Amino acid sequence: MPFYILLLQAFLAAPSLAALFPRSNQTTQSAAAQACSQLATTLGPSLVQSSGAQYDGTTSNAWNLLNTDFQPTCIVYPQAAQDVQTAMKAIYNAGSHYAVQAGSHSAMKGWNTVQDGVLISFSQMKNVSYDPVTDSITLQPGVHWDEAITALEPLGVAPVGGDDVGTGFFLGGGLSWLSTSQGYAADTFEELDVVLVTGELVTATATNQYSDLFRALKGGGNRFGIFNSSSAAALLNATAKYTRETTDPKAIAAVVFTDAVVEGQVYSVYHAFLFYNGTELPTSVFGDFLSIPAVETQLGPLSYFDMSFILGLENDRGYVEHFGASALVGEEALFLDAFNHWSNFSTTFASSFNESTLVFTPILDSQIQAGRARGGNIIDAPHGQFASVLIEQQFAAGIQDISPALQNGIDLLFQQIPPSAGLPLFLNECDAAQNVFATYGDYDLLKATYAKYDPTGFNVAHTQGPIGL
Question: Is position 185 within any domain?
């Protein structure tokens, strides 16, 4: 697959933080202790740990440095679905807070760890297998995508996956280099083994009695169960036009604007990652990008295996990360306006972070139609030809939390880059206070499905995750 890299130098009011995080108090601490005591007895010390090297390695390994501050009452390391069932039953019966960690690659504070609760870590469940008869891949929830891609590449199989993020990537929908022709990554689900909050194990497919749950998990996050310059202007205009006009499902693009702070100075670096599943980059699709003068270009053939690692691995630890999301139709004025607001934000708060990043990922209509052909998903985007927008900040080690002044700046930036009407936000790249579910086309179905499978609201009350249910 030929690729091209272009390098250029150059909503609603947020709820209170208390509403976003399950409260910890003497009652919840007691509930967690009760669940952990029971699990230590039923599963044994090798699978349930409250201290030691493995415990410390898990708590310190979160991608977002802020999530390393959490100390679970115990960590459960299941090795089979039955272990997950046992853990969830104990958590449910005790009324304990809990969290689930697959790849631990989340910018949202507390979404993959917990204070005074039970953490279920899937680090011991990382098997990858391929069945050539059914042409299907089976993944255990602890596998990272670099591991999955490496295991499958010798078999000639290309999963619709990410880079080194974990399988939680699926539950937010999942944007892949193959999405333009295959849909969201979650659209490739064939069957899901799901442990509900009560500990019941169900298998959900598009056609069985759990078809509503199956659809809800395609973008429903962790709420339903545990699933086993002038150059800048030219680049923005090219990206907006590509987003609006490109219909070729063989074409893939992502455009990244980064302001990096080095010794107090801001350095701007812009990348266009352009791929085409063919023998060349057709000028009819990428001509506007190719005409922009670049400091550095790389042009040549890549396998999907090589392509999956082109952005580098996402397993670097030691930084505090923060995400926010928007979604824009392909209009030049909207893209330029978003860039200007982001650039002003980066300049204003340059002393607060290492990097500030703005990413446009075009979602072609071919992606939406490919997903619908597979049965659709709970996101239910009305159409393609829009860009998913990621607003990201990376902070240095030592920061304990985002300051009120910086948070006000981030909130203002979200207001200045609102999503275009009717477009869904991308759950994997949202701020914890953004109600992503409310932007989904099937929001009412999502709420009804959640109420059906968790009628007491246990998940929302006892684990951190997306708001809106």
Answer: yes
- Say if strands 48-49 and 74-76 run parallel, antiparallel, or are unpaired: antiparallel
Considering only CA atoms, which of 271, 384, 316 is closest in space to residue 163? 316
Position 466 in a domain: no
- Give the residue numbers spanning the domain of 149: 128-228+443-456
Distance between CA atoms of residues 198 and 98, nearest Å: 13
CB of 395 closer than 8 Å to CB of 319: yes
Asked if 275 and 236 sit in the same domain, the reply is yes
Cβ proximity of 128 and 139 under 8 Å: yes
Number of independent structural domains in the chain = 3
Per-residue pLDDT tens digits for 353-387: 888 999 999 999 999 999 899 898 889 999 999 99
Q: What's the pLDDT score for residue 224?
A: 52
User: Which range has the worst mean pLDDT, 202-206, 294-298, 393-397, 454-458?
Assistant: 294-298
Supply the pTM of this predicted model. 0.68
Same domain for 340 and 435?
yes
Q: What is the β-pairing status of strands 226-227 and 118-121? A: unpaired
259 found inside a domain: yes
Q: Which of 73, 102, 121 is the last residue of a domain?
A: 121
Are 326 and 422 found together in one domain? yes
Q: What is the DSSP string of 112-166?
A: S--SSSEEEE-TT---EEEETTTTEEEE-TT-BHHHHHHHHGGGT---S--SS-B
Residue type, 85: Q
Same domain, 292 and 434: yes
- Which of 80, 98, 121 is the last residue before a domain boundary? 121
Between strands 98-101 and 118-121, the pairing is: parallel
The count of other CB atoms within 10 Å of the CB of residue 172 is: 27
Tens of pLDDT, residues 70-117: 889 999 999 888 898 999 999 999 999 998 887 666 666 767 788 999
pLDDT mean across residues, the chain:
81
Same structural domain, 221 and 241: no
Q: Greater confidence, 224 or 100? A: 100
Radius of gyration for the chain, computed over Cα atoms and rounded to the nearest angstrom: 22
- Same structural domain, 70 and 206: no
Rounded to the nearest 10 degrees, what angle do helices 230-245 and 283-290 cross at? 170
464 domain-assigned: no
Look at residue 3 in the predicted model and tell me its pLDDT. 44
| H-helix or E-strand spanning residue 361 | strand 355-363
d(CA 304, CA 91): 41
Q: Are 127 and 140 in contact (CB under 8 A)?
A: yes
| Same domain, yes or no: 77 and 95 | yes
Which residues contact residue 410 at a Cβ distance below 8 angstroms, ignoring those fewer than 6 apart? 322, 324, 345, 391, 393, 402, 431
Q: At a CB cut-off of 8 Å and minimum separation 6, what does 388 contact?
A: 175, 325, 327, 360, 361, 363, 425, 426, 429
